[in-house]
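Subgroup meeting minutes
Present: P.N., E.W., G.H.
Scribe: E.W.

1. P.N. recapped why we're keeping a running log of single-chain structure predictions: easier to compare across weeks, and new members can see raw inputs and outputs side by side.
2. G.H. added today's entry (460 aa).
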Amino acid sequence: MTRQIRLNGFIGFSPVHLSPGLWAHPRSRGAEYKDLDYWVELAKILERGKFDALFIADGIGVHDVYGGSADASIRAGAQFPKHDPLMLVSALAHETRELGFGITASTTHELPAVLARRFSTLDHFTSGRIGWNIVTGYSDSGARAVGREQVIGHDARYDRADEFLEVAYKLWEGSWEEGAVVRDRAAGIFADPAKVHRVRHQGPHFDIDTIHLTEPSPQRTPFLFQAGASARGREFAARHAEAVFVGGPTKASVAPGVADLRARAPAVGREPASIAVFTLATAIAAPTRDEAQERLAEYRSYTDPDGVLALFSGWTGIDFSTFDLDAPLARGESRDNAVQSVIDSFTVADPDRVWTLREIITHNGIGGRGPLFVGTAADIADEMEAWVNEADVDGFNLSHAFVPETFADVVDLVVPELQRRGIYKQDYAPGTLRAKLTGADRLPESHPAAGFRNLGFAAA
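Output recorded in log:
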């Protein structure tokens, strides 16, 4: 069977996500990020293109490493201001019928019972189209926002995340048995208390004694995305994730991490192919190659270099404001508690390429650190097929220069070409987001969440 390419639209709830400066382009609607109509239009464009999900990045910190302040990111509107994406989902779900929603939330900054209730509520309101992009946080700025002096250590964050997921699984999968909700009007019984269980959990990070406040939703556990690419992050993903988001500028920088992730799956009882891998990419499509290149040059004329480096400094924890823009980026340059894979994807993972900061500004300035596919629909389809075949990814989290143009061009030009080749769906599969992606509404028995079903926590 021909492998089908999957697509998500990747964006942040800000004037600019990964293309600093592009909010100012005359055709950009980025400055309208706070208007609901802007988001409804985007969701409808993606659904018209049969995208699997609108994937919204988030974090509670501001990029304040570059130059020792947040000035550059504030001036550029680069992931600032930043609204709460969970607030969007109900409205967008009401205006769509098939599109999924992948929403980022941190296990370091949230509480399990509170976040579990939010996602269960959204799973009801979307008829099962909600997914959680599980992150652990990486910035001191985000840590200070919740009262910590600095971010928790990298591997310790994943230890906390493992326990967070255990508590969430108990709430989603075990607190309410199947058949607990009876809605018996004649008897005046809404739910059977014998089938609703109290979750008691004591561990290093969480001490919980509660009943999940939301009745079972279509998926129970939301579809699980995960975005960690370090060795500890891949260990976590192999255990928990149904889809993993990776990023790097070349196939050579991404393929080893994908192979390592899939190799880890059998050790935790999961099939390697059961984990879908989405890689970051940006597609600049036009009817001709010359038009596509002209469009790219036009976009780049709006790039804000300081905004690009503000993001890069924030991700890596390194203040690049004093670095020589034309010096090679040093291998092994990193900060333990930041996003460890970002520097590695430009140095260690692709040793045949030497990057300078000036080149990174050009590369990252449109759509972030993933590859940039520029050309006709056929050119871009060729590149996507090559990535699937050579890096073993299943699809792409597509970034953008600005909304709506970049996504509309992909939907109008690239999607029909992928469909013509038989490597992209003609229509959505029925059911929940999980059913569309895996064929089943609920997590399989091989997933660790299944171990918390029907345990009778009241007796625990």
